[in-house]
Amino acid sequence: MDQGSIARILKQVSGGDDEIQQLQKALLDYLDENTETDASLVFSRKFYIAQWFRDTTMETEKAIKSQKDEDSSEGTHHAKDVETTGQIMHRAESRKKFLRSIIKTAPSQFSTLKMNSDTVDYEDACLIVRYLASMRPFAQSFDIYLTQ
């Protein structure tokens, strides 16, 4: 991954603290800008929003399940684990709120909310997609699958 390009994109994109959310917004902006030239980008945009929402939900469920498993096996409550789970829940809720706001916004309205039309080009969009894909659980555990 080209971390320099990712950092450059993050600097250009205005947004919150969550870099994943900033990259998602940049990619959605790019897809929305180019829907006139390629109609399949409308589907791609909707697919990414649905997939990110699903991923956020799954991450939250895993955090809750792991906390319950640790509590039942150890019998004690660790404040650090609760804080970590709380942070995961807070981050997940903020991502869901962001995605819901994107879903509720019509594509024509979303066009008016764009930051800069030249923030992300095709190469940057490809880089963002690769970076976000590398953050998914399957991509992170791919080496384990290969060694097995």
Automatic annotation (TrEMBL):
Basic and acidic residues bias: start-end ranges: 61-83
UniProt GO molecular function: chromatin binding; cohesin loader activity
CC annotations in GO: Scc2-Scc4 cohesin loading complex
Region Disordered, annotated ranges: 61-86
Gene designation: Nipbl_1
Example GO biological process: brain development
Protein name: NIPBL protein
Domain of life of the organism encoding this protein: Eukaryota
